[in-house]
Amino acid sequence: MSKRLIVCADGTWNKVEKAEGGKHLSTNVAKFGAALLPIDREGRAQLLCYLEGVGTHHGEWIRGGMFGFGISRNIGRAYEFLVRYYEPGDEIWIFGFSRGAFTARSLAGMIRNSGLLKVAHVDRIGDAVALYRDRYDDTAPDAPRARVFRNTYAHEPDIKFIGVWDTVGSLGVPGVHLWLARLLRVDWQFHDTNLSRSVENAYHALAIHEKRSDFKPTLWQKQQWPQADQQTLEQVWFCGVHSDVGGGYCEEQLSDVALMWMIEKAKARGLAFREDFLADQNWFHPNTEGKLHDSFDFPFSWLDTLRRKKGNREFQANGAKTFESLHESVVERFKKGESNWPPSFQQALQKLTQ
Question: pLDDT-based confidence at 139, cuts 50/70/90?
Answer without folding.
Answer: confident
